[in-house]
Design a protein that fits this description.
By secondary structure, the protein is an all-alpha fold. The protein has 2 domains: 7-42; 43-165. It is built from 7 helices and no strands. The chain starts with 7 loop residues before the first helix and ends in a 9-residue tail after the last helix.
C-alpha cells in the first residue's frame, strides 16, 4: 500500500524545486558557507576562519529586531514613539533598557574580537581586520543611538520627536 512514487523525471523536478526553495530560505547561510570555502581555498588559517565565523555571527546580531543602521533607525524610533503613545514610557522603558544592555554586550564582544584579530597573520587577515573595524563602528553607533534615545525619552517623547525631525540624532549627523 505505500505512497505512489512519481516517475523519475517528476521526482527529479520535484527535488530540484525543493532545493530551490530551501536555498532561497537559507540564502544568507549559503553565502556564509561559500565565503568560508573561498577563504579556505585562499589559504586562511583555522584561527582566521574561526574569527570570520564569529564576526559573521556578530554582524547577524546587529540586524535582529530590524536593521540597526542609518536606514533602520528612523522607522524604529517612529515605532517606539507609537508604542509610547499607546502604552506609556514607563511600560516601554524596561524592554528598551534590555535592548540597550544587548547593545552593550554586543559592543564588548566586537571589541574583544577586534583586539584578537590584530595578532593574526596570513591570507584574508587584512579583509578580516577591515570587516572587524566596520563592525566595531556599527556596534558603537548602535550603542550611542540607543543611549541617546533612552536619554531623550527620559526627558520626554517630544524631545526625541523634535531631535528626529531636526536631524540632531547621533546617527543623523555627518
Amino acid at each position: 500500500m505505500g505512497r505512489h512514487r512519481k516517475p523519475s523525471p517528476e521526482r527529479k523536478e520535484a527535488r530540484k524545486h525543493s532545493k530551490r526553495i530551501h536555498y532561497a530560505w537559507h540564502l544568507g547561510y549559503e553565502r556564509i558557507k561559500a565565503r568560508h570555502r573561498w577563504r579556505r581555498r585562499q589559504g586562511a588559517t583555522e584561527a582566521t576562519l574561526d574569527a570570520f565565523h564569529t564576526m559573521e555571527d556578530l554582524w547577524t546580531r546587529t540586524y535582529t529586531g530590524g536593521s540597526r543602521n542609518h536606514n533602520g533607525c528612523e522607522p524604529r524610533i517612529i515605532a517606539l514613539l507609537q508604542n509610547v503613545d499607546e502604552q506609556g514610557w514607563s511600560a516601554v522603558r524596561p524592554g528598551f533598557a534590555g535592548e540597550l544592555a544587548e547593545a552593550r554586550i554586543l559592543l564588548e564582544e566586537v571589541e574583544t574580537l577586534a583586539s584578537s584579530v590584530t595578532n593574526l597573520e596570513g591570507p584574508c587577515t587584512v579583509q578580516l581586520m577591515t570587516e572587524c573595524s566596520r563592525l566595531l563602528c556599527r556596534a558603537r553607533l548602535w550603542l550611542a543611538s540607543e543611549e541617546e534615545i533612552l536619554r531623550l525619552m527620559d526627558e520626554g517623547p517630544d524631545v526625541l520627536d523634535d531631535a528626529l525631525f531636526t536631524n540632531n540624532l547621533v546617527w543623523q549627523r555627518p
